[in-house]
Amino acid sequence: MIEVSCAIIIKDSKILAVQRGPGSSHPWKWEFPGGKIQPDETAVQCVIREIEEELMLRIEVLSELECVEFDYETKQIRLIPFVCRIISGELILTEHVAKCWFDPNKWQAFDWSGADRELILKNQESIEARIKI
Fold this sequence. Notes:
The protein has helices at 43-55, 114-130; strands spanning 2-11, 14-19, 30-31, 34-36, 57-64, 68-71, 76-89, 98-102. It is α+β, with helices and mostly antiparallel strands.
């Protein structure tokens, strides 16, 4: 089981989604940014590090949501989501090909990776409750 942290970044009542590129393990799928937890770090430390690396942003973790486990057949992941806000930086994509700030009730418009779709379904009410941050 691969442990992965992801950030549900909230800004002006919208949520950030990013799109993977053609050479990635889930080409053209949308996801919440994040990555694998390293052996020497916590899930919170991981999400902060990954967002700095992938988006050139410093974030603050506001709360943790319920994690999901997902089987991609070639790998199984535990996705640990954190609701976050931007502290500083200018959003620059270093690993993704596109970004979109979306209204939480419009999430179905995206072709999500499997784990991220499950995460939304499991945490939809919690996400909507926190969106006014």
